[in-house]
Amino acid sequence: MTKDSVNSRTIMWQSLNDREDFVLEYKQENEDEILQAKPQKSVLDIDNKKIYIYAVTLENLKDDMVYDYRLGFENNRSDWYKLKTAKENNNKFKALIFPDSQSNDYTEWKSLAMNAWQNNQDSDFFINMGDLVDNGYDLVQWNGWFNGVEPMVNNIPVAPVQGNHETYTTDWQVAMPNVYLEMFKLPPNGNDKYQNQYYSFDYGDVHFTVINTQDDEMAEFEPDLLNEQIKWLENDLATTDKKWKVVLMHRDILNYGRDAKALGDEISFSRHGEIYMPIFDKYDVDAVLTAHLHTYRRRALIRDFAQNEQGTLYILTGVAGNVRYPSLWHKNPFDEYVPPQPETNNYLVLEADENSLTFNCYLPDNTQIDTFTLTK
């Protein structure tokens, strides 16, 4: 995903070969003229091997245009793939939203992602809400994740959210999420130190803000992350001129009783809820999507830490991999919809229109279990 969805796209690929002759070729659909772009290269040194990651950001593309693109070196060329730019001033679009996809076997993730894609091929992009993989330093898992979203990721852009599992080494120690940071070249946030950790982008009349909730894990490595991100977040939300503001963050804003330890009618907010919810109130954020707990919950509208019809919609997005916590969490007083327990996988579809945002939640068999529409 790029900051400007109308006129640009970033295309990335990886190789075990260090080549200087890789090239990206692209053209307008049904046109003969082929343009070329040279990639930027970075190196990921992991598992005693080097992985070379290549990226091209295409700019000055035409709006509402289908392009064909392919990769090549020497006389070799890949198949052609398609990308479509957004239409200028068109506020109608669709996005797929996937909760935590972390798995020990990515078969179910692939089945869910491809089923959602097959049933929503008019989607303009997709979001993955963090914990893309169970272990952020396991390349086998990253291959499983990428395999699960192919061919969708070859045709529409992804907007990833960093989760805590992206920070875990193969011996389950916390480290910088280096693999995640190299795998995704994301819109610049104005601070090279934290590039790819948090970002924002626009699609139609919606401003999406993606924040990093791993400040606990990163305290040893980036002790200023939280304070720097808060300053960026306030400026990001204050300066957008879009009609809608949607925040994507991995960790949730509520605490839940678990197993035999119910909270009863007590409402308890997480540390990240206490930090960020006043900011969301201040800048009138319309919706906040979270993950991490592997359960789907739609809450009452909340403002000033209380139910308020003028408040923000908070949705805990569920689970998309095979790591599940069946019937673990008790109901929170703010929960307005909880799926039947024990839960299976799910995905969401966001449909934006001129005056509304609709969030639909589906089971793997495409049964709709929840829906909510914001209007403005």
How would you describe what is shown here?
Helix content is 16%, strand content 31%. The protein is α+β, with helices and mostly antiparallel strands. The strands form 5 sheets. The protein has a 7-stranded mixed sheet with strand order 12-13-14-15-19-16-20, covered by helices on one side. A 6-stranded mixed sheet has the order 11-10-9-21-22-23. Strands 2, 3, 6, 7 and 8 form a 5-stranded antiparallel sheet that branches. Helix 1 packs parallel to helix 2. The protein starts with 8 loop residues before the first strand and ends with a strand.
Could you outline the blueprint of secondary structure elements for this entry?
Blueprint: E1 9-15, E2 23-28, E3 35-37, E4 40-46, E5 49-58, E6 66-73, E7 76-77, E8 81-84, E9 93-98, H1 107-119, E10 125-128, H2 139-148, H3 152-155, E11 158-160, H4 178-183, E12 199-203, E13 206-210, H5 225-239, E14 244-248, H6 271-282, E15 287-290, E16 296-299, E17 302-303, E18 306-307, E19 313-317, E20 335-337, E21 347-353, E22 356-362, E23 368-375
Parallel strand pairs: 9-10, 10-11, 13-14, 14-15, 15-19
Antiparallel strand pairs: 1-5, 2-3, 2-6, 4-5, 6-7, 6-8, 9-21, 12-13, 16-19, 16-20, 17-18, 21-22, 22-23
Helix pairs in contact: 1-2
